[in-house]
């Protein structure tokens, strides 16, 4: 695919081609992710943790999300860019939700937005969709509601919560969302959801019965090392490689090894 669109993703699901998605929050990283051929780049509100060092995703602001998104957009040639609506920018009422989504689209040039939640934010999602802005849903573990749940453990293990999640997923498809992220739920349930809707289901900690996978870039590159959920596969140990490179540089400076004769004017 030359340029990934929301239509491409729905076609990929229909053709049984899995969707790859990663987060990015800045120009340099987004350029690498895009050139490596990732289908979807998520400017996640995980930037609150990864980029700003907050304990939760709640503090990041709409202005900060727009800054991250516009940096990512400048790097992209192919991937579809999805931007999280941050906590507090869409929960009050549908008008506020639409206003926030419009700001993201206008000020960053992003292609779509993502909101956490099901039927409680249905009217807000409809309002955004009515303005022609593609919406990705997010169900299961929804980190913006962390203080309601108290923990980041697996969601929808109970029958009732599982039923509600399936209903929410069907509702999101019905009103016109182009895809849904399912975070940290049993693999069996995620597979059932993926089989009961025709829009792509992108999983994180939701097993391999879904239509695509997403991870936080800095986690899968091994830059972070305190966060160790079972679903996280580390493809590199960048924490170690970077630490070694940086200490080597510090040593070289102290030992007058850097710069050498050919590294000066
Ligand atoms: O903010 C984020 O990184 C996310 C993904 C984990 C789905 O929402
Ligand atoms: Na998020």
UniProtKB/TrEMBL annotation:
Binds 1 Mg(2+) ion per subunit. Pathway: Cofactor biosynthesis; (R)-pantothenate biosynthesis; (R)-pantoate from 3-methyl-2-oxobutanoate: step 1/2. Catalyzes the reversible reaction in which hydroxymethyl group from 5,10-methylenetetrahydrofolate is transferred onto alpha-ketoisovalerate to form ketopantoate. The active site is at 183 (proton acceptor). SUPFAM superfamilies: Phosphoenolpyruvate/pyruvate domain. PANTHER family: 3-METHYL-2-OXOBUTANOATE HYDROXYMETHYLTRANSFERASE. The lineage of its organism: Bacteria, Pseudomonadati, Bacteroidota, Flavobacteriia, Flavobacteriales. This is 3-methyl-2-oxobutanoate hydroxymethyltransferase. It is found in: Cytoplasm. Mg(2+) binds at residues 45, 84, 116. Its cofactor is Mg(2+). Keywords: Cytoplasm, Magnesium, Metal-binding, Pantothenate biosynthesis, Transferase. CDD domains: KPHMT-like (cd06557). Belongs to the PanB family. Its EC number is 2.1.2.11. It is an enzyme of class 2 (transferase). Homodecamer; pentamer of dimers. 3-methyl-2-oxobutanoate binds at residues 45-46, 84, 114. Pfam families: Pantoate_transf. It catalyses: (6R)-5,10-methylene-5,6,7,8-tetrahydrofolate + 3-methyl-2-oxobutanoate + H2O = 2-dehydropantoate + (6S)-5,6,7,8-tetrahydrofolate. One of its GO terms (molecular function) is 3-methyl-2-oxobutanoate hydroxymethyltransferase activity. InterPro entries: Pantoate_hydroxy_MeTrfase, Pyrv/PenolPyrv_kinase-like_dom, Pyrv_kinase-like_dom_sf.
């Amino acid at each position: 695919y030359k340029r990934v669109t929301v239509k491409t993703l729905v076609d990929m699901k229909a053709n049984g081609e899995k969707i790859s998605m990663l987060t990015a929050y800045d120009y340099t990283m987004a350029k690498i992710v895009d050139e490596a051929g990732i289908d979807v780049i998520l400017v996640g509100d995980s930037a609150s943790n990864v980029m700003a060092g907050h304990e939760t995703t709640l503090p990041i602001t709409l202005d900060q999300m727009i800054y991250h998104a516009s940096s990512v957009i400048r790097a992209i040639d192919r991937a579809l860019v999805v931007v999280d609506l941050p906590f507090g920018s869409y929960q009050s009422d549908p008008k506020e939700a639409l206003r926030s989504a419009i700001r993201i689209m206008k000020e960053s040039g992003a292609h779509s937005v993502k909101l956490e939640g099901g039927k409680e934010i249905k009217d807000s999602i409809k309002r955004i969709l009515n303005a022609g802005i593609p919406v990705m849903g997010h169900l299961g573990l929804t980190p913006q509601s962390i203080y309601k749940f108290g923990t980041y453990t697996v969601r929808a293990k109970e029958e009732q919560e599982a039923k509600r999640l399936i209903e929410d997923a069907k509702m999101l498809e019905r009103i016109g969302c182009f895809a849904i992220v399912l975070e940290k739920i049993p693999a069996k349930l995620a597979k059932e959801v993926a089989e009961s809707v025709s829009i792509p289901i992108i999983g994180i900690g939701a097993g391999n019965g879904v239509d695509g996978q997403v991870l936080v870039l800095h986690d899968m590159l091994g830059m972070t090392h305190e966060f160790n959920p079972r679903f996280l596969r580390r493809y590199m140990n960048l924490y170690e490689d970077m630490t070694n490179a940086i200490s080597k540089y510090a040593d070289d400076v102290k030992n007058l090894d850097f710069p050498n004769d050919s590294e000066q004017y």
